[in-house]
Specification:
404 residues; mainly alpha; DNA polymerase, domain 1; hpI Integrase, Chain A; 3 domains; three-stranded antiparallel beta sheet; 17 helices; 8% strand
């Protein structure tokens, strides 16, 4: 049985025995306020008791009371089992794979209803549309295969379709792409918050989760700086209900960064920050859901993006046509990288701007090209924006700002 203990350092600790019978202590990070535990300490204690209970149940043979049917139900039992029986690195990689990829895609899908074709199509989509490497996709496939093998041994499902899915091989890069004109034409067709979000994605190169985590104080328009120091869970509003906050740690150390942004983005964000002051929210987010005042809805934004791409496609004057299916959030990040280098940016500066740990990751966006050390403020200049859309920059920027 888990119990709360006080320590001389005036903090609460939880003492319990794990599934192997070993006595362990776990710090709660909560200071003691008197001899009786407060509600926060009791909540931590209840979470540990529930976790250990699930770990013990996962070790037992399946009973009529514990037979998960869906992927999400099985994962809730598999996660504590992994934590106690596998190395920490393995457990963390599985947890990332399920929380970010499998559960959001197949949360309500029955284990026996997963098919080879369904799994193969999903990994192909991840590879072609989300800019994931073949190695990353194959690692995710191995995680899913191990999970389904575990489920079969316990009688939760009768087959393992992931075994028959062919590994993805590195081939020719995807032909999906956006260029600077495509992004600017789509920007003209968007309105309000959607316009500000799209401008932030393709004029600064931030990830969608990082864009969702931006707060008003992160924008410094006078210095042309955008501070990125937090991200948001894929299901941000669900995280608020479970943990009390939508934020998570950045993807990696280099993901915490200051980005020098171009004048066009400064103009748009300055105006949007003024417009949105009348709609406060508890986390001081820059972009919010107008209905809940929480994290903005990705699905609503993607739908607005597709509709804007349909209207913008006939207006493109360049040699490369705009396809509606190319209007993707992560392709805006790729478009920023291509524009940055093609207009004279440096590959090392681009790596820092995108928040990559390794330059090999950055080079997946396009081949290296020599250039001078420049920032986005130097590269995406008003003159080049005006040339891309075929009109005066002042008139173009004023039209965009008035539309917020």
């Amino acid at each position: 049985m888990a119990t709360l203990r006080q320590k001389p350092n005036k903090y609460w600790y939880i003492r319990y025995r794990d599934v192997d019978g070993k006595l362990k202590e776990e710090a709660t990070g909560l200071k003691t306020q008197g001899k009786r535990p407060n509600d926060a300490a009791k909540t931590k204690l209840a979470a540990v008791i529930e976790r250990e209970k699930n770990a013990r149940l996962a070790m037992e043979e399946p009973t009529s009371k514990l037979e998960p049917k869906t992927v999400e139900e099985a994962w809730l039992i598999y996660e504590p089992w992994l934590e106690h029986h596998r190395k920490e690195a393995t457990w963390r990689s599985y947890r990332t794979a399920f929380n970010h990829y499998f559960v959001p895609e197949w949360d309500d899908v029955l284990l026996d209803n997963l098919t080879v074709e369904q799994i193969d199509n999903y990994f192909s989509r991840l590879y072609t549309m989300n800019d994931l490497s073949a190695r990353h996709c194959n690692t995710l496939r191995i995680c899913l295969q191990g999970f389904l093998t575990w489920s079969m041994k316990r009688g939760y499902c009768t087959s393992n379709p992931a075994k028959d899915v062919e590994p993805i091989t590195e081939g020719a890069p995807s032909n999906r792409s956006l260029n600077l004109e495509h992004c600017l034409r789509i920007l003209q067709e968007l309105n309000g918050q959607d316009r500000a979000i799209w401008a932030t994605l393709f004029l600064s190169g931030v990830r969608l989760g990082e864009c969702k985590g931006l707060q008003r104080g992160d924008v410094h328009t006078t210095d042309h700086q955008l501070v990125v120091e937090r991200s948001v869970y894929k299901r941000g509003n669900d995280a608020i209900r479970k943990t009390g906050a939508p934020f998570q740690k950045p993807k990696s150390g280099p993901s915490v960064r200051n980005i020098t942004i171009p004048q066009l983005l400064c103009d748009i964000l300055r105006e949007w920050r003024n417009v949105s002051r009348d709609h406060p929210n508890p986390y001081d987010l820059l972009f919010t859901n107008p209905r809940t005042h929480g994290v903005f809805d990705e699905d609503d934004f993607r739908e607005a993006l597709r509709e804007a791409a349909k209207r913008a496609a006939p207006k493109v004057k360049g040699p490369e046509p705009l396809r509606v299916e190319d209007a993707q959030c992560h392709l805006a990040r790729s478009a920023f990288a291509r524009a940055f280098l093609s207009l004279g940016g440096n590959i090392e500066d681009l790596r820092r701007t995108l928040g990559h740990s390794r330059i090999q990751t950055t080079m997946r966006y396009l081949k290296w090209s020599p250039g001078f050390q420049k920032s986005a403020f130097d590269v995406i200049t008003p003159e080049k924006v005006g040339i891309a859309v075929g009109m005066d920059y002042g008139d173009f920027a004023n039209d965009l700002v008035r539309g917020l």
